[in-house]
């Protein structure tokens, strides 16, 4: 009631002002609103500036400098990039990273889809299976790797002991350049697929049962139902997870660092591990920054594809 | 919910924005002076709270130092030198005024200009000229400037399990003195006990580091200085011989166990568990085996001087206290006072050494009496050893093959320029030899030498 009573007064006051008044007031209100918005933005901008953008910019600068981080740096132009491309380990590292990505896509990508499909058919105790599949995700990565290191131990490891029972092995899982990368991918798949399984399961719940029933009525077997109903319905989720998988696996570091240190014979030396070696073992910060910049370009391209694809899917 | 007035929100946000970085900076930037104007000297090397007697001894030293040097307040730090983060911390001004580093690091830090020379002030100490030149050379630059004070220097030797020796029918009091004998002993241990006879490290640059020891023992070097430029020399016959020995032990004798990708900790852990017969290491690995990896039967620990095959030399190691470049002139001066008071003088004075040994021996987990290289001359070291002996809690007779054999060996430092780059390249070579039956040693060494020389040349431009 009181609000209603004041309205005529406010209206009368407004009517007495010049025509330019409301516009000025609107502008003033807009400026004040912007100021408030900026005031709230400034802390976040400062934090990002100090801890994200400045280090990124500094990294870019260092890629054109020779520095020990204490003395004043000297500009060396493209020298860091030149010595980078002259290093035969770069080709090895890029090749190994691509091998890891390929193996992770071949093994690590279909595995969670398959597992989700199996779990979705379970009538009783599906929760237990979901829990068991997700469990490795909550184990700290280094702990999981140390556990698998014991599994892979060529002497008393779990895998060789188990295979020995049926007369196979022993195999040098991590110590043969032929099998080391595959061993890393197997652990990474086990450790990381829990999240993907849950996403697939959630997506599968959303597929209307009528589609399966209709396919069944049309005489489709399990394989055709998977091929013609399940996979097309999961198309967008599969594509999304594939891109996420690519982005993650290109940056693989923890597994080769803890399992093998990049060996044997650089067979598991990845790009990130090479950056780490340049910076922290050799003190070649310029080269490390140069390779990081190249890595950023690759990741930016992958991210652009990711954003483009997800936008297309969300609009469709 | 009550609305926050715009002006209050604005002021609060701006205040937070300004305060956030400031509080961050103030939390990270160490104070350089105490509230009463004393100079605060931050020093690494303070033992952790779990090592009570050693910590008590450190605090006592601090109190005595502060009494003798009014105006200086020592603040101990349990921070351990980490090569991965050191440069970043130094750049941010967060490194202590005294750092403790292993002997593998000083040359790299000197070459990168991250530590400062202390020759001028250290020379004022009465016994400066009595330092063991072989030890002090490793803390010095090419132009003779000294950068630090050594503590417990040692030479690499052959660590062996006396119990496994006995089980294999070998005499633990007569460990191998040549590499042919090491090969024979390793084969026997492996055949009779099923344990690894001999293990060689191969990753985290430690494969290259241990191949350096082997190369020295075979009479070679891994780096040469020509016309003022350093270059790697991997293709010498001694390095090839050393690798051929490893290849034979691994593939002909099968005496190196199953696990081949190991760093130092992996090897000591296996040794402490009684799984390894022999490995190249120092007497100081006794401490690691006992205190870090819980070696139950420390009586099985034995160490001999580095076996030789024509080199008559071994690699040295130890701890070193240095002053980083970030310390200003006043702090650097106070730091050198602390170094002479806390590390140089106690290693010179028999009374101080005995007091230290007595305090440390109170901790049953400690290792007192582990032999070190002379920090000064041999006669002084003999007097120090005699002063410590009553408090020794290790079986000193199990270290005798080391001390007796060491006397005739030449003590060599690590490759002087960019040693870690050399080790990275050699890691791959060692790994290839240990994991591939048909590894071509000559080709591997030639390729590694070519790669590393390209990097060294670029660094020296």
Automatic annotation (TrEMBL), chain A:
Gene3D superfamilies tied to this protein: MetI-like
UniProt-listed SUPFAM superfamilies: MetI-like
Residues spanning the membrane: 35-56, 98-119, 131-151, 181-206, 226-244, 256-279, 285-307
Keywords annotated in UniProt: Cell membrane, Membrane, Transmembrane, Transmembrane helix, Transport
Membrane-protein topology: Multi-pass membrane protein
Family of this protein: Belongs to the binding-protein-dependent transport system permease family.
Keyword Lyase: no
Protein name stated in the entry: ABC transporter permease
InterPro entries xref list: ABC_transporter_permease (IPR051393), MetI-like (IPR000515), MetI-like_sf (IPR035906)
Domain ABC transmembrane type-1 span(s) in chain numbering: 94-306
GO cellular component: plasma membrane
Automatic annotation (TrEMBL), chain B:
Signal sequence, start to end: 1-27
Lineage: Bacteria, Bacillati, Actinomycetota, Actinomycetes, Kitasatosporales
The keyword Signal belongs to this UniProt entry's keyword annotation: yes
InterPro entries tied to this protein: Bact_solute-bd_prot1, SBP, TAT_signal
Protein name: Sugar ABC transporter substrate-binding protein
PANTHER family per record: ARABINOSE-BINDING PROTEIN-RELATED, SUGAR-BINDING LIPOPROTEIN
Keywords noted in UniProt: Signal
């Amino acid at each position: 009631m009181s609000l209603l009573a004041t309205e005529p007064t406010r209206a009368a006051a407004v009517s007495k002002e010049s025509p330019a008044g409301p516009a000025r007031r609107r502008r003033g209100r807009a400026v004040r609103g912007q100021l408030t918005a900026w005031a709230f933005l400034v802390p976040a901008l400062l934090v990002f500036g100090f801890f994200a953008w400045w280090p990124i910019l500094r990294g870019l600068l260092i890629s054109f400098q020779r520095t020990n981080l204490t003395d004043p740096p000297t500009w060396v132009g493209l020298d860091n990039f030149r010595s980078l491309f002259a290093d035969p380990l770069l080709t090895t590292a890029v090749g190994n990273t691509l091998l890891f990505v390929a193996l992770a896509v071949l093994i690590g990508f279909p595995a969670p889809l398959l597992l989700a499909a199996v779990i979705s058919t379970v009538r009783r105790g599906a929760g237990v299976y979901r829990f068991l599949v997700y469990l490795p995700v909550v184990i700290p990565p280094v702990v999981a790797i140390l556990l698998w290191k014991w599994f892979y131990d060529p002497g008393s490891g779990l895998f060789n002991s188990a295979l020995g029972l049926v007369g196979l092995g022993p195999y040098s899982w991590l110590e043969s350049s032929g099998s080391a990368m595959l061993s890393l991918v197997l652990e990474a798949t086990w450790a990381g697929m829990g999240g993907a399984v849950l996403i697939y399961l959630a997506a599968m719940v959303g597929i209307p049962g009528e589609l399966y029933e209709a396919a069944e009525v049309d005489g489709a077997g399990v394989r055709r139902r998977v091929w013609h109903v399940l996979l097309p319905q999961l198309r967008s989720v599969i594509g999304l997870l594939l891109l996420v998988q690519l982005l993650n696996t290109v940056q693989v570091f923890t597994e080769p660092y803890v399992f093998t240190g990049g060996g044997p014979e650089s067979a598991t030396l990845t790009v990130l591990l090479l950056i780490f070696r340049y910076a922290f073992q050799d003190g070649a910060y310029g080269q490390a920054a140069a390779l990081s910049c190249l890595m950023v370009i690759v990741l930016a391209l992958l991210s652009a594809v990711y954003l483009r694809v997800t936008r297309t899917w969300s609009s469709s | 919910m009550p609305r926050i007035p715009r002006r209050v929100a604005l002021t609060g946000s701006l205040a937070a924005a300004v305060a956030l970085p400031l509080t961050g900076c103030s939390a990270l930037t160490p104070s350089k002076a105490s509230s009463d104007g004393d100079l605060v000297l931050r020093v690494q090397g303070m033992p952790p709270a779990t090592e009570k007697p050693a910590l008590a001894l450190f605090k006592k030293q601090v109190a005595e130092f502060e009494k003798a040097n009014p105006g200086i307040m020592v603040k101990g730090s349990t921070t351990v030198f980490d090569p991965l983060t050191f440069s970043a911390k130094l750049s941010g001004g967060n490194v202590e005024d005294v750092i403790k580093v292993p002997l593998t690091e000083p040359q790299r830090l000197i070459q990168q200009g991250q530590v400062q020379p202390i020759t001028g002030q250290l020379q004022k100490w009465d016994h400066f000229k009595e330092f063991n030149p072989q030890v002090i050379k490793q803390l010095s630059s090419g132009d003779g400037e000294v950068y630090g004070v050594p503590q417990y220097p040692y030479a690499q030797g052959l660590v062996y399990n006396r119990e496994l020796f006995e089980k294999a029918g070998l005499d633990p009091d007569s460990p191998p003195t040549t590499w042919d004998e090491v090969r024979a002993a390793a084969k026997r241990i492996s055949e009779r006990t099923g344990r690894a006879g001999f293990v060689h490290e191969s990753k985290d640059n430690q494969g290259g580091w241990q191949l350096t020891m082997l190369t020295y023992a075979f009479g070679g070097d891994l780096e040469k200085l020509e016309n003022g430029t350093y270059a790697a020399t991997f293709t010498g016959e001694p390095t090839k011989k050393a690798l051929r020995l490893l290849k034979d032990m691994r593939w002909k004798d099968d005496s190196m166990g199953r696990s081949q990708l190991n760093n130092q900790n992996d090897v000591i852990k296996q040794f402490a568990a009684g799984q390894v017969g022999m490995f190249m290491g120092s007497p100081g690995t006794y401490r690691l085996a006992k205190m870090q990896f819980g070696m139950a039967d420390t009586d099985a620990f034995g160490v001999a001087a580095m076996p030789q095959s024509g080199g008559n030399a071994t690699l040295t190691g130890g701890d070193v206290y240095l002053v980083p470049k970030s310390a200003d002139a006043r702090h650097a001066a106070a730091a050198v006072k602390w170094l002479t008071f806390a590390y140089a003088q106690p290693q010179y004075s028999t009374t101080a050494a005995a007091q230290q040994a007595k305090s440390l021996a109170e901790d049953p987990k400690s290792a007192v009496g582990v032999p070190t290289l002379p920090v000064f001359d041999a006669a002084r070291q003999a007097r120090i050893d005699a002063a410590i002996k009553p408090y020794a809690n290790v079986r000193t007779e199990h270290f005798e093959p080391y001390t007796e054999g060491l006397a005739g060996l030449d003590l060599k430092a690590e490759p002087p320029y960019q040693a870690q780059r050399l080790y990275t390249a050699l890691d791959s070579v060692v790994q290839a030899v240990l994991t591939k039956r048909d590894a071509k040693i000559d080709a591997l060494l030639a390729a590694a030498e070519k790669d590393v020389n390209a990097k060294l040349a670029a660094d020296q431009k």
